[in-house]
Design brief:
CATH architecture of chain A: Orthogonal Bundle
Structural class of chain A: alpha+beta
Oligomer: homodimer
Mean pLDDT of chain A: 93
Number of domains of chain A: 1
Low-confidence stretches of chain A: none
CATH topology of chain A: Arc Repressor Mutant, subunit A
Bound molecules: zinc ion
Strand content of chain A: 15-25%
Radius of gyration of chain A: 16 Å
Chain lengths: 132, 132
Amino acid sequence: MSAPALTKNQALVFDVLEKADGPLSAYTILDKLRDHGFRAPLQVYRALEKLLEYGVVHRLESINSFVACAHPGENCHKHGIVAFAICESCGQVMEFHDHEVDNRLTDWTKARKFKAEKTTIEMRGLCEACAA
Amino acid sequence: MSAPALTKNQALVFDVLEKADGPLSAYTILDKLRDHGFRAPLQVYRALEKLLEYGVVHRLESINSFVACAHPGENCHKHGIVAFAICESCGQVMEFHDHEVDNRLTDWTKARKFKAEKTTIEMRGLCEACAA
DNA sequence: TCGCACACGTTATAGCATAACGCAATTGAT
DNA sequence: ATCAATTGCGTTATGCTATAACGTGTGCGA
Ligand SMILES: [Zn+2]
Ligand SMILES: [Zn+2]
Ligand SMILES: [Zn+2]
Ligand SMILES: [Zn+2]
């Protein structure tokens, strides 16, 4: 699941996400890539699907947006569950891991024999700068 | 924020969710209430908005659906962050609280002065029965 | 009685995501 | 070399999710 060489479209989408200062929706990405020949949502969604699979992009379920992984190179997935703090004012996203949270959730799933495939942890609120 | 008497529409929507054996999308709710005079999505969304506010219904961000609170009467919000395990096969949802998870996330936010307004924890996977 | 808050109904629109078709390039076994 | 399978890509169409904007009626306190 580590990232092979990206195709042209995958590279374009990843580049847009990496340069952005916050999460972007698929349609926003599409708009940013019209000059590069993108015409339809599927071109974006198909690239995102692969980038998510490779673990270099994360999807923020609570805001239907996508963001480049904040920990390039280290294959984020291996660090366990990823959590996000999303500022609803400035859009900034902070990505972090907490092994104790992982452990507690894993304990819960083990006790109930629930097989978790994908876990979402997202906090929406105000960052320090915006709360002031 | 405890629940006042529900209006007619709110009661109808809540009733549908309570009787359902899993989460429902707003449009599914709409379809189930057409016989009761519902004609437009807003009728559902407006009722849901209040039910969420009262804490008797939860929104599952990762599947764009809504579910009745599994802990009627005790005002779920007071127990801290709510977490869900969602079976992608049978649709069953398990709702739970974990104070240690709460504490860890709260510690993180305090350390970074992030003011969390709404936290989502959702695990998607297979329940014991479906994994077998 | 006036003004306000709130629920409600309706129409229209915006925003998010995928189905289904066909084509081209790549790969990898025979 | 050839064929089949896989993968990426482009396009059109469609479906699902959510809200904007406008207007109506009702209840209730100033
Ligand atoms: Zn990451
Ligand atoms: Zn901020
Ligand atoms: Zn609850
Ligand atoms: Zn199941």
